[in-house]
Amino acid sequence: MAEAQARMASGQQLLYPSDDISKSNLIASLNSAKERYAIYSKNIDEVETRFSAEESVLSSMTKVVQRIEELTTQAANDTLGATDRGIIGAEVAALKSELFRLGNTTDINGNFIFSGNKFDSPTFFEDGSGAVQYGGDYGRFNINVSDTRQLQVNTLGPELLSTEDFAALDRLIAHLSQDNGEGIRDALDDVSSIGENLIVSYAAMGGRASAIESQRELLEESQLRFDQLLMKESDLDYAEAITELTKESLALQAIQASFAKITKLSLFDYVR
């Protein structure tokens, strides 16, 4: 009865591992798996936060490049004079600076998110001649999302904008300031190529985000199965426990009643 009451108080089938070694080992394995999968879920939460930041940057960069393309197409028309092209050149220069700033986006910890493993170094910087250079490395972040699977996390700066892309924008700005219509028209292909590269990077990041979301669903399903198995193997069936406790109680009462009657008997009673 004491054991039955203790099980009901704890809500567990087993009071001690030695009660059932095989079942105890299974329960320990399930709990260990749950702990690992909780870590995987936390990893996915962190990655999704990062993807959200990357998506915001890529979206902003795409809009900036689209505006540059619109301005370049407009300036390619020779009906525009030097003054108009100069004004457009000033706006393109500001938009180039915005791309530079977006490329150097940091996370909440101040780490540059597009610099690979050199997260403490600016993704892009200007050298002594004013040319933009890549300041990161080409390291990839991979996180564990299950016992057998890793997923790539980060996008690298050159996958967004290369040093040549910035150089092409510098040439475009020079052509605009010099009222060079032919040079402006030649720059259209470069600007279009920058936009296409961003689209490819956006799609690649979207693919990784989709894989992460699918993995989250798998983790949630696995965690649900672990909970169900643990409930089956470790949680007490209270209806069954109450029945067992009632049976033990009745048996104890019967034994106590018999004992009480026996203790009242004397040797004379036996002889008689």
Major beta sheet, strand line-up: 1-2
Average pLDDT: 83
Helix content percent band: 55-70%
- By CATH, the superfamily comes out as f41 fragment of flagellin, N-terminal domain
Total number of domains: 1
Task: Tell me what you see in this structure.
This protein has about 270 residues and is mainly alpha-helical. The protein has one domain (about 25-235): f41 fragment of flagellin, N-terminal domain (Up-down Bundle). About 70% of the residues lie in helices and about 5% in strands. The protein is built from eight helices and four strands; from the N terminus they run αααββββααααα. Strand 3 and strand 4 form a beta hairpin. Helix 5 packs antiparallel against helix 6.
Draw up the topology in text.
Layout: H1 2-10, H2 21-75, H3 82-103, E1 124-126, E2 132-134, E3 142-144, E4 150-152, H4 157-160, H5 163-177, H6 181-233, H7 238-264, H8 267-271
Antiparallel strand pairs: 1-2, 3-4
At a glance:
By secondary structure, this protein is mostly helical. Helix content is 70%, strand content 4%.
Descriptive keywords:
single chain, mainly alpha, f41 fragment of flagellin, N-terminal domain, two-stranded antiparallel ribbon, 8 helices, 4 strands, 70% helix, rod-shaped
